[in-house]
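tool_call: predict_structure(chain=1)
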Amino acid sequence: MKRLLPILLGAALGLAAATSALAMERGGAMTFARYDDSTVIDPVYADRNPDLWMVTGLYETLLRNGPDGSIVPGLAEGYDVAADGLSIKLKLRDGLKFSDGSALTGADVVFSLDRARNPELGPWAGLLGAVDKVSADGNQVTLTLKNPDPTIVSILATFNTGIMPKAAFEKAAGANDQEKARAFFEAGPVTSGPFTMKSRMQGSSMTFERNPNYWRPGADGKPLPYLDQVDFVIIPDDATRILKLQAGEVDAAEFIPSARVGELGADPALKMELFPSTRIVYAPINTRETRKDGAKNPLADVKVRQALNYATDKSMLIKLVTFDTGKPMTSLMSAATQLHYGPEPLYPYNPEKAKQLLDEAGLGGGFEVTFTTLAGSADDATLFTALQQMWSPLGVNLKVEQVDNPTRGEKNRSGDFDIHTYGWANDVNDPAQVTGWLGYYKQRQAVGTGWNNAEFNTLFEASNVEVDPAKRKDEYKKMQEIYAEGAPLLFLFETPFAVAVSKSIEGYVQTPLGANDFSEAWRAK
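tool_result:
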């Protein structure tokens, strides 16, 4: 049975030793201020970040994403992928239990994974689309695949494959799976993760309580979590969340606006955490030969797209929008994404190079571009104003079109735009998700840009069945190089997850995928 990445496990042990050196303590509670409430924390039906980012607090997966996004053991102590890539075997740990004390068995794993891959249920079934059958024999679980899938290991560490109790779920009220899921959640679910749900007042508050049967040991050798409970309060307004934190009414607050990061970082009672993330801010460029109205599209010329990228001062945008908390994009994916390749920021500011490219494209005399933004977004307004000033010396007449979010999405799908604002954060610890979304033509026409590169498409398809890690790494390197040269986006910046935490709290982490991890959080007494 293959053991998981000894180097990463060694790093984890090093972190545990460091935590022990801090004399961490058990017991107590922490209060966490959230911007929005969860609707239903279910591995299959979670489809909003307030749900997605809480799933693994209640439901453990066979493998886990560590705090830095690496894959580490979970309910399974190891795994073995067949040489032909057509099956994966995992061994469950001995003595696993759910929060109610019932045994966690292979039957629960089969039930959970079959549910997760059912296309008639939640939106994430496609992540397990390569799975033909899930079976269990004692502690041995086998996934038989229809075709090799190099993402399968990462998917088994993804929220939608959280393990649920078959018997308890099936006893829940409801005529179908969705009704049972809601009833199961609202009644206080039986869980496999570090916490159970003690109470909940919809739209107001929620409390997680320590799962007494959780398996994973802490630095002191006793099972996690350290805290007895985590109390969540819902405070949509940024300023109010911060006021509550400064007053000591809450111990942590998420989604700190960039403009407040410096202030809170200087507060002696607080720690201003900027957790590495997979979030990128970019602007899709319509690369089609003609605009929606049939007029010739100047952005179809790659030299024009490259010129606009060179004419964009990313350092200035990072200062204006993120208050220097962001960093320039170096690839189509964030630097925290597996198989990222980007030795330096894409298209460093060079207005002279931009002018040269526009002259070569025959557009030295200038042209008009519409920039579609979200109405009411201060960040989008700042981006437009800055780009308008940066591009004006090149003769680019940038006009703004303000729309709501549904309209922006529809314009993206229909190709009725020139350039528009957008953002992304990975849900899966594998580059296939973001790469398919942004670059693969057959998936939403490369994030609506219409960019259609045959070599890129072929490489992406090959990478989705390539089980040799070295070959897959080479495929992704080449794809990122092709995409950078094709410039179907304005490559803007990456941003961290900004969370302000009381100095009395240690060990809370928000992972690069956004998950809130309280399993190793503790309060100094």
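agent: The domain at 277-496 is CATH 3.10.105.10 (Dipeptide-binding Protein; domain 3). Proceeding to next step.
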